[in-house]
Amino acid sequence: xxxNLRSIVCAGFVILMSLASYSQNALxxxxxxxxxxxxxxxxxxxxxxxxxxxxxxWDMRPNDSYLQYKTGASCLFRxxxxxxxxxxxxxxxxxxxxxxVTFYMARSKHLLYKFQEAIDMYNSxxxxxxxxxxxxxxxxxxxxxCENGIELMERQMALTLEILTPLSNKENSQYxxxxxxEGKYLYYTSRGPDSKGDLMTDQTKYSDIGLYYExxxxxxxxxxxxxxxxxxxxxxxxxxxxxxxxxxxMSVSYDNKIMFIYLSGDQAEEDIYISYNAGxxxxxxxxxxxxxxNTPHYEGHAFLAPDxxxxxxxxxxxGGEGGRDIYTATMREDSTFGNVQNLGTKxxxxxxxxxxxxxxxxxxxxxxxxxxxxxxxxxxxYIKYDSTDSDWQEPIxxxxxxxxxxxxxxxxxxxxxxxGYFSSARASGENLHDIYRVQPGTFERLNALxxxxxxxxxxxxxxxxxxxxxxxRTGDVLATLVADSATGEFVYSLLxxxxxxxxxxxxxxxxxxxxxxVPPMKEAxxxxxxxxxxxxxxxxGSSGIQDAIDSLVDPLDLLSGVCDVEPDREELTEVxxxxxxxxxxxxxxxxxxxxxxxxxxxxxxxxxxxGYSDGITRFLMGQKFTKRxxxxxxxxxxxxxxxxxxxxxxxx
Length: 652
What we know:
The protein contains 13 helices and 33 strands. It has 652 residues and is an alpha+beta fold. It folds into four domains: 5-154, Serine Threonine Protein Phosphatase 5, Tetratricopeptide repeat; 160-446, TolB, C-terminal domain (Neuraminidase), CATH 2.120.10.30; 448-543, Immunoglobulins (Immunoglobulin-like), CATH 2.60.40.10; 552-652, Sporulation related repeat (Alpha-Beta Plaits, 2-Layer Sandwich). Residues 1-17, 542-546 and 548-560 have low confidence and may be disordered.
């Protein structure tokens, strides 16, 4: 949103002070006026436009340290300029006139996902500058973001993610995507030269350093083979978009009758409005939502749940947890909304939460937050409502590559859950967003992932190898991994209902190619433990045990974890052991595993959670045995610890 008058006055004061201290011989006349414009744009967060001015002025005066500093600081917000920003700024490190150089260097590493380097630089900035107050709080928060990023990057997911063209472009900012219930139209916010009106200040006066207003655009499905192939977007209508205010789509109700719209400017506060469908893309003139939802403060996003009565919305009104919070309101008999309730600390934090979306199942909430383990800016989260406990579960970060170190928000899912749409600043920089789509769209399916745990052996000894994971349908190389030289292990996440080609190269052996078919799954997590063997000519394992394993094991059994072994037998054969089978103590098996409590068993041993292709999640004690009698001792220990429902099974 645009800066308010107080912010502009404060920003102007800072700029005037900086210019007052600027050398009188630095710049004169029009160049000084352009520098003022650049500083104003920088303070407004319009870093890309500020960069163009700073860079051109720096070309004029290449020895000017102020222009070098501001060019580097604004350059880091260009998606392809972060390395360049670091190189510009590192030449100024230690310059006492610009103590925040190290901070911006750290930001460049942060945005490049070099999280540990960023942490070190943030700490160096705190130590050398003795930063205090808001600067110290901001820096500590960014360090926490980097720590979260390290963890999130370790469990990145394999999925289909792409920028949505032709909607996204380099001139306009596109965000807040909304799919109509029938999937025929995509509504979104566009802000830039295509918006109605000119560059305007907060006082609706023309200025070339002002900002464009937001408009609602709509793109129509092209009707081709691609279910979500949309054409060029266009302004929704002059009835809705105006030249002197912001209009942005929040959501369309599941019955396709109501569009919730954000309006501000032109004497309109930052409030929620509604528009009624008049056929296809024709919508009525927006009307301010009646009831207790709108206040003199920001109300910026709203979504009506499938029940048609519960409204989820965001607001920064006083009395919340801090910043923007997410609330609910209930439709009354007169169709106004009341009984406003804050969703509480499971969702809201001292930082900002925004853009709530309720999936068609009525119990899955997606929202954006600067807290809950964000790796930087807004990240998108999923949380499930547990009707049994009448409470929300814990929020889950949607992870990389959906979330990045830039702002990512406005998650919206098609009714069938196949695709998710969201906007992100990752490609274009601050304040210039693009629309992306991801498949699958729902976290239930995103979480129905398959973990391939591969182990490479050379003559039955763990070995290092180069493993390429290839999509068998497209031929795309998804990842190139190196198996650990000590354990032979490598791990990668796969998608359900896909076939993958695994190409392996081990030193001294011919290349090897094997295929992994992943069964269809809609929920749970499946772990595939796959052994990849290389043998030299004449090695006993190449024809003896391995041939017996190949003839014994059905490929589907590898995916399901099944071992065709009677659990009452006392001891496993050599072939069964080599195929990965072992006696295990199982302490639970659930289709909905979230409520199973097992922490008390850690006094006996670690608990391993394994999802299988049958959709059932099994809880197994970590120990593996070749003899049933050994497993039975552990079973008795589990019973003594309080888990009476313990039994012995044979599993991979």
